[in-house]
Specification:
Pfam families: TIM. Belongs to the triosephosphate isomerase family. With 236 residues, the protein is an alpha/beta fold. The protein has one domain: Alpha-Beta Barrel (TIM Barrel), CATH 3.20.20. It is 39% helix and 17% strand. The chain is built from 11 helices and 8 strands. The chain has an 8-stranded parallel sheet with strand order 7-6-5-4-3-2-1-8. Strand 2, helix 2 and strand 3 form a beta-alpha-beta unit. Helix 5 runs parallel beside helix 7 and helix 7 crosses helix 8. The structure holds 1,3-dihydroxyacetonephosphate.
Length: 236
């Protein structure tokens, strides 16, 4: 069975300023960070370049979104080519806030994943149901529908550059891995990292990290605080 390197993403969402970023970088530098964990921070796009200039090279960077074509008349959007041009190698796509607040469809998210992979970015592809969908017992239906939209656009080798981020927990992670095995391939299912994106804190990270199908985290609020170091080190 392939080794899946633990992956912790810090999604800063629409937070931060140069001063706050300096503070985050200071606690990341102080660490120490478990070298067996892949760490990727995602600042707002306007700060990608600034963060790239100051962050240690051992920590990766992600944009929080991008568009599905290289350039053109798409006011307010950024492209994978631009993300790469400032030295950044990852992008988060399909975050629940983009799906539900900004109205991104499964197809749009999948097209963004396709274009980003074609341009050579790594993709943190987010999937997850809303609370009302969960309460209606639709978790698997929604999550598999979203995953299928993405899977339809990813080539066999493309999966090497995808991390799947899902909210609720081990049970669904295990179901997702089974879906990947049956619908993509046993090989991809064994290799792909499925990370947990539901309010991870310094308090709950160690227990979550013990689950066999949880290969890391996508952290929101706690990634802005020194607690993030403990989360990165959850498997230590
Ligand atoms: O959306 C999330 C990660 O992208 C989770 O956010 P919080 O960790 O702030 O709950």
């Amino acid at each position: 069975m392939p080794e899946r390197k633990f992956f912790v993403g810090g999604n800063w969402k629409m937070n931060g300023s140069k001063k706050e970023i300096d503070e985050i970088i200071a606690f990341l530098k102080a660490g120490p960070l478990d070298e067996h964990t892949e760490v990727v921070c995602a600042p707002p796009s306007i700060y990608l370049d600034y963060t790239h200039q100051h962050l240690p090279g051992t920590i990766g960077l992600a944009a929080q979104n991008c568009y599905k074509v290289a350039k053109g008349a798409f006011t307010g959007e950024i492209s994978p080519a631009m993300i790469k041009d400032v030295g950044v190698h990852w992008v988060i796509l399909g975050h629940s806030e983009r799906r539900h607040i900004l109205g991104e469809s499964d197809l749009l998210v999948a097209e963004k994943v396709e274009h980003s992979l074609a341009q050579g970015l790594g993709v943190i592809a987010c999937i997850g149901e809303t609370l009302s969908e969960r309460e209606a017992g639709k978790t698997s239906e929604v999550v598999f529908r979203q995953t299928k939209a993405i899977a339809d656009k990813v080539t066999a080798s493309g999966w090497d550059h995808v991390v799947l981020a899902y909210e609720p927990a081990q049970e669904v992670h295990a179901e997702l891995r089974k879906w990947m095995s049956e619908n993509v391939s046993p090989d991809v299912s064994a290799k792909i990292r499925i990370i947990y994106g539901g309010s991870v804190t310094a308090g709950n990270c160690k227990e979550l990290a013990r689950e066999s199908d949880i290969d890391g985290f996508l952290v929101g609020g706690a990634s802005l605080k020194p607690d993030f170091v403990q989360i990165v080190n959850a498997r230590k």
